[in-house]
Amino acid sequence: MSATIDACDVIGAPVLPPPQVAGAITRLRALLARVHRGLAPPPVQVLEGVFGLLDHGALAALCNLDVPEQLDRPLPVTELARRVEADPELVRRLVHYAAGRGWLRVDRRGRARPTRTTRFLRRDHPGGWRAWVEFASGPEVVAAVARLGTDPRVADAFASANGAPFFDWQTAHPDRHHVFDMAMAAGGRLHGLALAAALDWGATTRVCDIGGGTGALLGVLVDRHPHLQGVLFDLPAVIARATPHPRVEVVAGDAFAGLPPGCDTYLFVNVLHDWDDEHVVQLLRGVSTRAIVVEGERRERPVDDITARTDVLMLALAPGGRERTTGELADLAARAGLGLERTVALPTGDRAHVLR
Ligand SMILES: C[S@@+](CC[C@H](N)C(=O)[O-])C[C@H]1O[C@@H](n2cnc3c(N)ncnc32)[C@H](O)[C@@H]1O
Question: What is the distance between the alpha carbons of residues 346 and 324, in angstroms, rounded to a whole number?
């Protein structure tokens, strides 16, 4: 899949937008959202917050009914219901909710119509984003988020709800672990494209992706830069599911026991945010050349973006895990003996931190 992947497949636009444009769009959306909220009286804001949980349930229901697959053209709701073999009234109610979210559209004739997002929700879409719905609607994730809500002081919400810490639980549940890998691969393709374009890879020869999942990111990166050799490093259960690539060596192991030697660049993409500060320092100490850390950048002043959401997701899934400001990452890197050389904004909204 990686050889042919392009921006249309991963983000729905012919090219990745320049980071400044992506940043401006995020800020504009945040401003409009503030205006939207500001126009609502407080009780409506409270109810909208409470009913936020229904977004998740309705999206999962729509996908579990295969609505994205069946809605391949404008369809009367009764016809859509026939196709998905469900009660027309159930389908109408979900379709109307979904129209308010942009997952599909309802036209003047009352027909459901696919939007760009509907296509991204299909199981066979090359971007693979459907896996995020399947991951986030898994009972273990739902239980962890619920535990955070009922017991916010608990040290590890995921383990408290499911009996084991996140990665141990995943390893013991291969079917769900595979879904998590697929969700990570969707982001990996996007990050692969973004990193391939945003950084100069000319002086790099051998790049290791630590916690690189099944290799989606590395596959895209080495395809775009044919002089690169890749080393994919992850837990044994994940490496067993890796997608083979002729220029990517796969290495299974525990990053806390040491990193594969002999690479001039080590990537950590959405990996450090899984861990507390001590573990992050331990991981970075394994790097004696160059590290590129890609994470959502937490701002000192709150911004309503994906990073604000993944920061709270980490509260539910990963004890001590968090999104960090560039300053916080630089401080942890310094404790590991690495200096922050520069940072590069990415069109994904994340930031690449180059450490040496
Ligand atoms: C949040 S995912 C990020 C995956 C990928 N880098 C991305 O951005 O999509 C974290 C990855 O770290 C891996 N991981 C967790 N603990 C690890 C360990 N001790 N050693 C190596 N990899 C580990 C997980 O299996 C998973 O693939």
Answer: 16
Look up tokens 């080495």; give the residue: 222
189 is written with which tokens? 């393709």
**Any catalytic annotation for residue 96?**
no
Indicate if the alpha-carbon torsion angle 214, 216, 217, 222 is positive or negative.
positive
Token representation of residue 336: 């590991």
Per-residue pLDDT reduced to its tens digit, 85-122: 999 999 999 999 999 999 999 999 999 999 999 999 99
Work out which ligand 1 atom sits closest to the CA atom of 188: 9
pLDDT value, residue 307: 93
Cβ(216)–Cβ(189) below 8 Å: yes
Q: For a substitution probing ligand 1, which of 235, 243, 295, 323 has the most ligand atoms within 8 Å of its CB? A: 235
Which pTM was predicted? 0.95
- At 178, the amino acid letter reads H
- Angle between helical axes of 77-84 and 88-101 (0-180°, round to 10): 110
323 labelled catalytic: yes
What is the number of the ligand 1 atom nearest to the C-alpha of 214? 27
pLDDT at 304 over 90: no
Lining ligand 1 with CB less than 6 A are: 167, 184, 187-188, 191, 211-213, 234-235, 238, 254-256, 269-271, 274
* Atom in ligand 1 nearest the alpha carbon of residue 170: 25
pLDDT at 309 over 50: yes
Q: From the candidates 245, 273, 297, 353, give the one annotated as an active-site residue.
A: 273
Of 134, 140, 295, 297, the active-site residue reads 295
φ/ψ of residue 286, rounded to 5: -75, -5
pLDDT of 5 strictly over 90: no
Query: Which two structure tokens, joined as six digits, stand for 36?
Result: 């939207």
Name residue, tokens 């916010």.
Answer: 152
Looking at residue 1, its pLDDT comes to 42
178 is catalytic: no
Residue 174 pLDDT > 70: yes
For residue 344, report the distance from its CA to the centre of ligand 1, in Å.
22
pLDDT in tens, 234-268: 999 999 999 999 999 999 999 999 999 999 999 99
